[in-house]
Design a protein that fits this description.
Layout lengths: L4 E10 L3 E4 H5 L6 H8 L3 E4 L6 H16 L8 E5 L10 H9 L6 E4 L5 H14 L5 E9 L17 E11 L4 E9 L7 E3 L24 E3 L1 H22 L9 E4 L4 H11 L10 H4 L6 H11 L8 E8 L3 E8 L3
Parallel strand pairs: 4-5, 4-6, 11-12
Antiparallel strand pairs: 1-7, 2-3, 6-7, 8-13, 9-10, 12-13
């Protein structure tokens, strides 16, 4: 068999209708729009509806991606869902998505690398597809982060939002597509960013209640300053690693599509690359931190606004609790 290259042939995204602005947050906790925007770059975020599950958002994004690729669910060989907020402990949310899409008898599984989940998932799918296991893979990042946030903790509740992004991946002999990936994790940092709960609870029996305190809630805990310092350092390193791995000069990168956690972290990574912010996809202002959904959402924003062109080099990078971080480099071929 000739060498296979993994291409993105379809993209889709979904955001819940409910928008929570900084102005509304001002009425809930001791914070301000100016403080939030100055520290994070976030102006608003989307919040999942009471009757929606993580799988529902994933399905909406997947349908758009499949339609964009011109195929149906029966044309898919495997389905991967990256999520921190599964519908339930088991079965995997991917199997729920499979059933809701009408798919049958192909492998479907979840991965959990928090905000780095999409980067990890893309690397996993790329390796398996190059090895000949699958021809087409549906990869989804979907999160209901609002259901694991303590809405009385002003240091974390302002950061997160909900949504889903999906891509269809196809193995072809045509050159281009995913050029390489670099992944890392270091559990020594695990206590700096975490959430405790046996059931993350993205299902409707755990609807978002803005009056909830941390008791009984899978509340996110974060030591923000420490996370920021490590994130900037590790992302700077991994950007250099992926470029060296793929033997690409940083000046050749056309677009940076980063995890949308904090505008200051994004700006620091762009500076490392010597890139203007005009060449960076930034959706953090409107979406907040949607964890593993943020990169496909940001990539879809570039695609839908017509900014991507064939042959362009796109660098994806993310940093997450764990700590887990990584990057992918791909040549746009859609």
């Amino acid at each position: 068999m000739n060498e296979q290259h993994v291409h993105l042939t379809g993209i889709g995204s979904y955001l819940p209708e409910r928008v929570l602005s900084n102005a509304e947050l001002e009425t809930m906790v001791d914070t301000s729009d100016s403080w939030i925007q100055e520290r994070t770059g976030i102006r608003e975020r989307h919040i999942v509806a009471a009757d929606q599950m993580t799988s529902d958002m994933a399905v909406e994004a997947a349908r758009i991606a499949l339609n964009d690729a011109g195929i149906g669910i029966d044309d898919i060989d495997a389905l991967i869902v990256s999520t921190t907020t599964p519908d339930m402990v088991f079965p995997a949310t991917a199997t729920v998505v499979q059933a809701k899409l009408g798919g049958k008898d192909f492998p479907a599984w979840d991965i959990q690398a928090v905000c780095s989940g999409f980067v990890y998932g893309l690397a996993m799918a790329d390796g398996m597809m190059r090895a000949g296991m699958f021809r087409r893979v549906l990869l989804i990042g979907a999160e209901a982060m609002s259901r694991i946030v303590n809405w009385q903790d002003r240091s974390t509740c302002v950061l997160f939002g909900d949504g889903a992004g999906a891509v269809v991946l196809e193995a072809k002999e045509k050159e281009g597509g995913v050029l390489g990936s670099v992944l890392h994790a270091d559990g020594a940092y695990r206590d700096l960013l975490k959430a405790h709960h046996p059931h993350p609870g993205a299902s409707p029996d755990r609807v978002v209640d803005f009056s909830l305190d941390a008791a009984g809630v899978a509340a996110v805990e974060m030591k923000g300053n420490e996370v920021f310092r490590v994130a900037v350092t590790k992302l700077g390193q991994v950007v250099g690693e992926i470029l060296e791995h793929c033997q690409v000069d940083k000046g050749a990168v056309d677009w940076l599509v980063p995890h949308q956690a904090n505008i200051r972290i994004i700006q620091a990574t762009a500076k490392k690359l010597g890139m203007s912010m005009e060449r960076v996809s930034t959706t953090v202002r409107e979406h907040g931190n949607t964890s593993s959904a943020s990169i496909p959402l940001a990539l879809d924003e570039l695609y839908r606004t017509g900014k991507l062109a064939a042959g362009q080099l796109i660098l994806l990078e993310a940093f997450a609790g764990g700590f887990a971080w990584g990057a992918n480099l791909l040549r746009w071929s859609k």
